[in-house]
Write a structure and sequence with these properties.
- The protein has 2 domains: 9-188, Rossmann fold (3-Layer(aba) Sandwich), CATH 3.40.50.150; 199-261, Helicase, Ruva Protein, domain 3.
- Helix content is 36%, strand content 20%.
- It has helices at residues 19-28, 46-54, 65-74, 111-120, 134-141, 151-159, 199-211, 217-220, 228-232, 234-238, 251-261; strands at residues 15-16, 36-40, 57-62, 81-85, 100-105, 125-133, 160-168, 173-174, 181-188.
- The termini are far apart.
- The mean pLDDT is 92.
């Protein structure tokens, strides 16, 4: 029925067709009958069907106008599914009532900005179960010390507890993507992983620290223009040596660092 609609490369569309993996995603999200689920990029509705069978309500946000009519003709009133024609990067998530679980096969080329936006509205969500490019998923769940650990790891781990669920092979999709995929779940924390005095400054410090990965903190933090006497006192005040590299610091250590450097 849906075969006449071809995936749009410009929208990063790769439709997941394999029922085994569709069910595993919904299992990973722990969707139950009373849950409200937000789906981003329903595509041809394969995941939407599985969600509709298990959730209390599904709100599916689709950008591609070719798919809207098709989705709306299948998911009619009474199906528990609402199809919204919108861009997830602009949708007013603050208007959502109650608590939601996000379940989405995200277009890989905009997965990071969508995750950042969902985290902005994290009070609306209890968890986010997302299919991502495998490398991005590995960066998000990476621990300090690994070469994948970076700004995105700290950003996501500050607000959520991420767990790797499983990998999905390219042949589970149509068309077949050029990359491997992975499903992760981000459980939104009640409180951030570190208590910081100024969140904006905290993220500025983290970004600066990772901007030159091979350099020590002493070199990479120079761009913040901090007074020398402050950086000289850093080790004795926080226990953090400026000779370390950003990838060795935990989220909590970044919090201590940022609080001490706060102007």
């Amino acid at each position: 029925m849906n075969n006449h609609i071809h995936a749009k490369k410009s929208l990063g569309q790769n439709f997941l067709k394999d029922p085994h993996y569709l069910n595993r995603i919904v299992d990973a999200a722990r969707v139950e009958q009373m849950d409200q689920v937000l789906e981003i990029g329903p595509g041809l509705g394969d995941l939407t069907r599985v969600l509709a069978a298990r959730a209390g309500a599904v709100l599916a946000i689709e950008l591609d106008d070719r798919l809207i009519e098709l989705l709306r003709s299948e998911f009619v009133d009474g199906s528990g599914v609402t199809i919204v024609h919108a861009d997830a990067l602009e949708y007013p998530f603050e208007t959502l009532a109650g608590s939601w679980k996000v379940v989405a096969n995200l277009p890989y080329y905009i997965s990071t900005p969508i995750i950042q936006r969902l985290l902005q509205f994290r009070r609306k969500f209890s968890s986010l179960t997302l299919m991502l490019q495998k490398e991005v998923a590995e960066r998000i769940v990476s621990s300090p010390g690994g070469k994948e650990y970076g700004y995105l790891s700290v950003l996501v781990q500050y607000f959520t507890q991420p767990r790797m669920e499983f990998f999905v092979p390219p042949e589970a999709f149509s068309p077949r993507p050029d990359v491997d995929s992975a499903v992760i779940t981000l459980v939104v924390r009640d409180e951030p992983a570190a208590a910081v005095n100024d969140e904006q400054f905290f993220f500025r410090v983290v970004k600066a620290a990772f901007s030159q990965r091979r350099k020590t903190l002493r070199n990479s933090l120079r761009q913040l223009g901090l007074p020398k006497e402050k950086t000289d006192q850093l080790l004795s005040a926080t226990g953090i040596d400026l000779g370390r590299r950003a990838e060795t610091l935990t989220v909590v250590e970044f919090g201590r660092l940022a609080d001490f450097l706060l102007p």
